[in-house]
Amino acid sequence: MFSCVSLEQRVPQNHPLRSVRELTDAVLRTLVPEFDALHAASGRPSIAPEYIS
User: Fold this and answer.
1) How far apart are CA 24 and CA 50, in angstroms?
2) CA-to-CA distance for 5 and 25, rounded, in angstroms?
3) Which residues contact 49 (CB under 8 A, 6 or more apart)?
4) pLDDT tens-place string over residues 3-34
5) pTM
């Protein structure tokens, strides 16, 4: 079934998962240099998991 409602609209603004997401996003941002070092220097460009939505 197709839905035109985004996930942002489905999760209430005061839901606890929003604060968990903020924390995990902050931690992932600090780990970006380490993730970048793990990606291959040659071949097809990689998309880091934290950017996939």
Assistant:
1) 9
2) 23
3) 35
4) 788 878 888 999 999 999 999 989 988 988 88
5) 0.58
